[in-house]
């Protein structure tokens, strides 16, 4: 697999040219407090593809250093998502931040012994006040000059559970006057009384991310720790930890940053996504309208389309807002050549072929995919009574109408040419049944000399039809950039009330029952669909529209 070059590759190439001999090793470090989303796919792709490109290793490491909101449910979901997206388990292995709690504690004790860390009694609010601002330096904690012996004793007592949560923290002793706020004696350990999803109550103190992450990277021999751009100002602290804990660590990783992926008409904040789920605004983390990977998977998106989207969106250091239509274009472009074709009628009206025997049935061979001869054909049953789309008939047709009308002819896709002879309406003038005659010499699409039939409509045999609901999805939010909501409003104010529409009573071609689960199909003239993993509200079959047929996005060439 070829990977488009980007600035991260240039950094690695330069490192290799300057004598880096270690095998390139990357990692993806999600916190198991929610489900992965399309933005996570970019981080996965960057780290995984670098390992692929340089014949290196790729780790999945769960950042489970905060037990309050973490859960094994999220661990299992992330494992499934990463393997689904990359097509395999991580080549370097699967790890947990909690694997390294002993090492983090060892490094913390080492820093204390070197006079580079101290136990502080300031509250969170007091620490914030002492920290200063972007224009004013911070001031030293009154506990900054505790002796090494006192700090070691207090830190051991913190671990033993002697103090209340929030009563003390362990802080790195760096520089309260640093222009970088992250270097102003940051907290590196805090007291948390909560049951950890993996190790129970073994620990009551936990390392903070900025301290634990570089240690974890070093323990796994990560060569390039690639993370999103908001961590750029944290890089000096990352390097400080690695440099000052070097005697305890087996390697010296390097952190580099890339811009996050932002997509129109959706949100990427895990906090917002959780709020949508917990308040019932959506039907769960795997709601097909959600930007989560499990939601996209349930909707019918493929890993290859998502990776194509991430590649086209590009890798840079500048934040940008990517049009969601590019994602739709990527899956549409793929399914156009790969998806099976099937017929489905969404607003059915009865079509009776009056010159076709009531007891007769036959089948017509119809191509599974006109763009792929190797896909072969399937046999579609035909009978006297059919379902056609309500919109494919008009008593008073508009100009250039090429479908069925009184005394007009159309081709039934892959079958006969039929002519409308009679229309039956109800008391409100609504068409309830159309009677026609078929030219029985025109089966299997056979032409008739001298006759031009411009219309070609799809149909389903009423006797063999499969009932199903079709779920149609639109953008979850009406606002293009949810990261910049107008003053005085909330992102929830822009939830799209039309983001989901359910078409009930649809009539599908019989063969959809024989299609394996997870098969993506084009319902001809309707869009691309996949059977939902959950039944419809009435307990029957339900299909999710992955994307419509119409493509309004014009992407740049790859």
- Low-confidence parts: none
Top-tier CATH class of the largest domain: Alpha Beta
Name the CATH superfamily assignment of the largest domain. HUPs
Count of individual domains: 3
Number of strands: 27
List keywords for this structure.
558 residues; alpha/beta; Rossmann fold; Ribosomal Protein L25, Chain P; 3 domains; seven-stranded mixed beta sheet; 27 strands; 25% helix; elongated
Describe the structure.
There is one protein chain. With 558 residues, this protein is α/β, with parallel strands linked by helices. It folds into three domains: 7-258, 3-Layer(aba) Sandwich (Rossmann fold); 263-340 and 468-547, Ribosomal Protein L25, Chain P (Beta Barrel); 344-458, Ribosomal Protein L25, Chain P (Beta Barrel), CATH 2.40.240. The protein is 25% helix and 24% strand. The chain is built from twelve helices and 27 strands. The strands form seven sheets. A seven-stranded mixed sheet has the order 12-25-26-27-23-24-13, covered by helices on one side. A seven-stranded mixed sheet has the order 21-18-19-20-14-17-22, with no helix packed on it. It has a four-stranded antiparallel sheet with strand order 4-5-6-7. Helix 8 links the parallel strand 8 (224-228) and strand 9 (254-258). Helix 2 crosses helix 11 (303-313) and helix 7 (209-219) packs across helix 8 (235-244). The protein starts with 6 loop residues before the first helix and ends in an 11-residue tail after the last strand. The relative contact order is 0.10. The mean pLDDT is 95. GO terms for molecular function: ligase activity. Residues 24-336 form the Glutamyl/glutaminyl-tRNA synthetase class Ib catalytic domain. It is an enzyme of class 6 (ligase).
């Amino acid at each position: 697999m070829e990977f488009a070059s980007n600035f991260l590759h240039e950094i690695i190439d330069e490192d290799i040219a300057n004598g880096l001999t270690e095998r390139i090793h990357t990692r993806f470090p999600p916190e198991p407090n929610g489900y992965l989303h399309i933005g996570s796919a970019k981080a996965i792709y960057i780290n995984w593809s670098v390992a692929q490109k340089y014949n290196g290793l790729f780790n999945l490491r769960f950042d489970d250093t905060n037990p309050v909101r973490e859960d094994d449910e999220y661990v299992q979901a992330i494992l499934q998502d990463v393997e689904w997206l990359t097509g395999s388990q991580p080549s370097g292995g699967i790890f947990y931040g909690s694997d390294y709690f002993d090492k983090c504690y060892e490094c913390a004790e080492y820093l204390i012994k070197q006079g580079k860390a101290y136990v502080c009694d300031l509250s969170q609010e007091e620490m914030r006040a002492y920290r200063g601002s972007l224009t004013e330096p911070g001031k030293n904690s009154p506990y900054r000059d505790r002796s090494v012996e006192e700090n070691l004793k207090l830190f051991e007592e913190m671990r033993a559970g002697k103090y209340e949560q929030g009563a003390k923290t362990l802080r790195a002793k760096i520089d309260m006057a640093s222009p970088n706020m992250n270097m102003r004696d940051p907290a590196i350990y805090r007291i948390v009384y909560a049951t950890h999803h993996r190790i129970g109550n073994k620990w009551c103190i936990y390392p903070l991310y900025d301290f634990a992450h570089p240690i974890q990277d070093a323990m796994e021999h990560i060569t390039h720790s690639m993370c999103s751009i908001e961590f750029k100002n944290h890089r000096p602290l990352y390097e400080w930890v690695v440099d000052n804990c070097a005697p305890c660590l087996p390697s010296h990783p390097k952190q580099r940053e890339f811009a996050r992926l932002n997509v129109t008409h959706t949100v990427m904040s895990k906090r917002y996504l959780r709020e949508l789920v917990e308040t019932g605004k959506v039907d769960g983390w795997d709601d097909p309208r959600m930007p989560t990977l499990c939601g996209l998977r349930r909707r019918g998106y493929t890993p290859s389309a998502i990776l194509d989207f991430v590649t086209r969106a590009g890798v840079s250091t500048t934040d940008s807002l990517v049009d969601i239509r590019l994602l739709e274009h990527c899956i549409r472009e793929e399914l156009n050549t790969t998806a099976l074709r099937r017929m489905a009628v969404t607003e059915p009206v009865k079509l009776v072929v009056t010159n076709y025997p009531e007891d007769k049935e036959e089948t017509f061979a119809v191509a599974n995919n006109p763009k792929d001869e190797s896909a072969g054909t399937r046999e579609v049953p035909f009978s006297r009574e059919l379902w056609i789309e309500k919109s494919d008939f008009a008593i008073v047709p508009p100009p250039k109408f090429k479908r069925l009308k009184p005394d007009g002819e159309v081709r039934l896709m892959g079958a006969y040419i039929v002519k409308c002879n009679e229309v039956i309406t109800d008391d409100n003038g609504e068409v309830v049944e159309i009677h026609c005659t078929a030219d029985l010499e025109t089966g299997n699409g056979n032409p008739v000399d001298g006759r031009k039939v411009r219309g070609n409509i799809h149909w389903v045999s009423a006797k063999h039809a499969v009932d199903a609901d079709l779920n149609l999805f639109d953008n979850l939010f009406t606002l293009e950039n949810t990261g910049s909501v107008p003053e005085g409003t909330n992102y929830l104010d822009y939830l799209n009330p039309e983001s989901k529409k359910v078409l009930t009573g649809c009539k599908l071609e019989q063969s959809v029952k024989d299609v394996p689960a997870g098969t993506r199909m084009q319902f001809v003239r309707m869009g691309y669909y996949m059977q939902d993993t959950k039944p419809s509200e009435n307990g029957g079959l339900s299909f999710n529209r992955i994307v419509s047929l119409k493509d309004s996005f014009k992407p740049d060439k790859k």
